[in-house]
Each structure stands twice: as C-alpha cells, then as structure tokens.
Design goal:
By secondary structure, the chain is an alpha/beta fold. It has two domains: about 10-30 and about 130-225, 3-Layer(aba) Sandwich (Rossmann fold); about 35-130, 3-Layer(aba) Sandwich (Rossmann fold), CATH 3.40.50. The protein has helices spanning about 20-35, 40-55, 60-70, 100-110, 110-125, 140, 155-170, 175-190, 215-225; strands at about 10-15, 35-40, 75-80, 80-85, 90, 130-135, 150-155, 205-210. A five-stranded parallel sheet has the order 2-6-1-7-8. A hairpin with a 3-residue loop joins β3 and β4. The protein starts with 9 loop residues before the first strand and ends with a helix. The chain binds cytidine-5'-monophosphate. Cytidine-5'-monophosphate (C5P) binds near residues 44, 45, 109, 137 and 190.
Length: about 230
C-alpha cells in the first residue's frame, strides 16, 4: 500500500552559485505558491556579520561556530511583504549584502562546525504548506528528501554584471573586473570545499539563466514544479 503523509510540507530546493538569480526567483516562487522562504545564504551572512561586529577571529572555526550557535536573528515580514532581518534586534537587511560580508560569509561557510550549527535552524523552516529553500546545499545536504530540486546557474560574467547593477542601484560602486574575480574566487571556494560543496543533486533540474530573462526562468521553474 502506498502511504502518503498528507501533512508533510512540500520542499522545493533551489541551489546554485551567487548571482544566478536564485534570490529573486525564490521570492517569486514563494509568493506565487504561498510557501515559506528560507534564504540560507542570509544565515551564513548573518554569522559573518555577527562575528565581524563582535571582533571574533574569522580564522578560528571554534569561535565562529560559537557565534553561529548563539545567533539571535529574526526574519520578519513587514512593508507589504518585504522581508526584514534583525540581528540582536538591529535591522541588518542591507548590511549583510555588503561585499566584505559576502567574502567573509563564503570563508566561514567552509567550516564544518558552522554548517552543523545552522542545520536544525534551516530545517525548522520546513512547515506547511511548503518551503522554497534557497542555497548551495539545500537539495544535497539540508533537504535531501525534497520533492523538487532545482539548480540555477549562469556564466561568471553574466552573474558579475547582474551584481554590478544591483550594487550600483544601492550606491555601492565596485570595479567590474574585481567583481568577476571575487565571484570566481567564491565559486572556487564554494565548489571545492570538503563539506557540502556547491553541486547539483543527482536528480536536480539544471537551468542555465545566462541568456534568459527572469520571467523565462520563472516559467521554466514552474514547469519543473507542476
Ligand atoms: O547566497 P549568498 O550569496 O547570500 O550566500 C552567501 C555565502 O554563504 C555563499 O558565498 C556561500 O559560501 C555560503 N552559503 C553556503 N551554503 C548555503 C548558502 C550559502 O555555503 N546553503
């Protein structure tokens, strides 16, 4: 007999490198389906920012894992649905997106004990009716039993260009060549780390968004889900 647990939340994982459009598309899908959203990258960024703020040595895995375990964070929805992130009661929604935090997040994400400290916190997001889980290892490590697994990618140049435009609109000006270098460096680190490296789950649907518009990718993702 085929027994189905009807109350189990549906989990859709979206993994891929930074700048692939995962964040925007995860938000669009969550809104469209009425699902919860886990931005797991934000958790690694929050650990990095919290560590930077309190002077923790980023080279010390134990010290950073301690910060991850005690992370005091609230994800709240306000302003007509736009998510706000509070770290120890202070709004850090924009602060965690700074380049320095991106680099630090990628560094501390390679520590196994930091990843372990964040595991239960991530799994707790899977509540009914469903979850869109955005990250690097959602389909491989955090939610291996997810019903749908998507992997979104794009060339490093296309991703650097998107990030450049995003930073410009925020008034943060960076050198394009430096951005491509940073992205490659982060890709390298995310893909080659020993624990939970960035790679598609064997059953993932892979979508290359290099030459696609957001709407085209959204349609493709919906088709993969339904
Ligand atoms: O996705 P985002 O760029 O916000 O992630 C920030 C950093 O956190 C990434 O560079 C990556 O190293 C790390 N990360 C991770 N595993 C995840 C999500 C993010 O290692 N599931």
């Amino acid at each position: 007999m085929h027994v189905m647990n009807v109350s189990a939340p549906i989990v859709i994982t979206i993994d891929g490198p930074s700048g692939s459009g995962k964040g925007t598309l995860s938000q669009m899908l969550a809104r469209h389906l009425g699902y919860h959203l886990l931005d797991s990258g934000a958790l690694y960024r929050l650990v990095a920012l919290a560590a930077m703020k309190n002077g923790t040595d980023l080279d010390s895995e134990d010290a950073v894992a301690h910060v991850a375990t005690g992370l005091d964070v609230i994800f709240s929805l306000e302003n007509a649905g736009s998510a706000q992130i509070l770290l120890e009661g202070i709004k850090v929604t924009d602060a965690i997106r700074q380049e320095a935090v991106s680099m630090a997040a990628s560094k501390i994400a390679a520590y196994p004990s930091v990843r372990a400290a964040l595991l239960d916190r991530q799994r707790a997001f899977a509540v009914a009716p469903g979850l869109i889980a955005d990250g690097r290892d959602m389909g491989t490590t955090v939610f291996p039993a997810a019903q749908v697994k998507l992997f979104l990618t794009a060339s490093a140049e296309a991703r650097a260009e998107r990030r450049y435009k995003q930073l410009c609109t925020k008034g943060e000006f960076v050198d394009m060549a430096e951005l491509v270098r940073d992205i490659r460096e982060r890709d390298e680190r995310d893909s080659n780390r020993a624990i939970s490296p960035l790679r598609p789950a064997s059953e993932a649907v892979i979508i290359d968004s290099t030459a696609m518009t957001i709407d085209e990718v959204f349609a493709k993702m919906l088709a993969a889900i339904t």
